[in-house]
Amino acid sequence: MALLEVNNLGKHYNGETKVLKNVNFEVGSGEFVSIIGPSGAGKSTLLRCINRMVEISEGSVFIDGQSVGGMKKKSLRSLRTNIGMIFQHYNLVPRLTVIENVLHGRFGYKTNLQGIFGRFTEKEKEKAFELLDKLGIADHAYKRCDQLSGGQQQRVGICRALIQDPKIILCDEPIASLDPNSSKIIMDYLKKITNELGITCLVNLHQVEVAKAYADRIIGLKSGEIVFDGPSKLLYQEK
Ligand code: ADP
Ligand code: ADP
Fold first, then answer.
1. What's the Rg (C-alpha) of the chain?
2. Angle 61-103-81 (CA atoms, 0-180°, nearest 5)?
3. Residue of 19, 57, 88 to test ligand 1 pocket, by largest number of atoms within 8 Å of CB
4. Phi–psi pair at 4, nearest 5 degrees
5. Residue 20's beta-bridge partner residues?
6. Does ligand 2 come within 6 angstroms of the Cβ of 91?
7. 237 vs 26, residue with greater confidence
8. Is the CB of 70 under 6 A from ligand 1?
9. Which residue(s) pair with 228 in the sheet?
10. What is the pLDDT of residues 128-160, one digit of tens each?
11. Secondary structure of the chain as H, E, C letters
12. How close is the Cα of 191 to the center of ligand 2, in Å?
């Protein structure tokens, strides 16, 4: 059984034209897959269906054998602890410190954030610091996130995703707002996570060259349909 199964997935917003059509693929444990395609192809919507940030209109998504589509609140919460999310605009809470943002990942989102630091055990804090250290930003632990550079904020985002020991990480254009140097650092980390921790990584990218350089496998989306699915080295002109 594959870790992620997407079967005949279709998605429309508000009954309008479908932005995903009959999407089928499976991803195994520890795979590093890049989803590429032009703006508007449906990459972001695809990730949003997988963690049920949006409702699935047709077909099904299974993670670890569990159907995501019909899940109620409680199962959704436990589903999301298995899924780390990384966003183009980092989605950190700007007025909180780096360490608080990382610990926040353990609560899931939409939690009351007042006094968050005190609510964690020493062990949890230790783990958060270890992650910050691995990502090279432990020195910034007590800074507010909005005082960090984009590349540093994205590293906080990676720590926040990792602290819940996810099985899979979904990255929505993680380097689209970063300069080439920071982009390389972030992509290297994502690759390392997959290789060393065996976490499955699904990364939306619009830069084909980056996808080819990092991903083992590429899924090409165009107007909501898969137009390529195979080893990165077999991809040439698809966009
Ligand atoms: P990509 O990530 O590849 O740029 P998206 O998944 O963001 O593509 O968008 C695919 C299509 O769905 C686009 O036409 C976009 O305008 C539309 N879309 C995305 N989000 C919404 C939404 N919340 N409501 C209505 N349409 C949306
Ligand atoms: P919106 O603000 O568009 O209504 P939501 O209410 O669904 O979006 O989500 C609130 C915020 O939390 C958004 O910025 C969203 O991207 C973010 N978010 C959603 N799911 C997760 C997750 N699993 N981990 C971290 N942040 C998340």
1. 17
2. 15
3. 19
4. -125, 130
5. 11
6. yes
7. 26
8. no
9. 220
10. 999 999 999 999 999 999 999 999 999 999 999
11. CCCEEEEEEEEECCCCCEEEEEEEEEECCCCEEEEECCCCCCHHHHHHHHCCCCCCCEEEEEECCEECCCCCHHHHHHHHHCEEEEECCCCCCCCCEHHHHHHHCCCCCCCCCCCCHHHCCHHHHHHHHHHHHHCCCHHHCCCEHHHCCHHHHHHHHHHHHHCCCCCEEEEECCCCCCCHHHHHHHHHHHHHHHHHHCCEEEEEECCHHHHHHHCCEEEEEECCEEEEEEEHHHCCCCC
12. 24
CA nearest neighbour of 49 among 39, 40, 60, 38: 60
pLDDT per position as a tens digit, 174-218: 999 999 999 999 999 999 999 999 999 999 999 999 999 999 999
Residue 8 gets the label, from left (phi > 0), alpha (psi -120 to 50) or beta, of left
Both structure tokens of 163: 């602290």
Contact 175, 133 (CB under 8 A): no
Distance CA 111, CA 230 (A): 39
CA dihedral over 29, 134, 154, 111, signed as positive or negative? positive
Rounded Cα distance, 61 and 70, in Å: 10
Query: What distance in Å separates the CA atoms of residue 87 and residue 69, rounded to the nearest whole number?
Result: 22
Beta-bridge partners for 25: 6
Is the CB–ligand 1 distance for residue 121 below 6 Å?
no
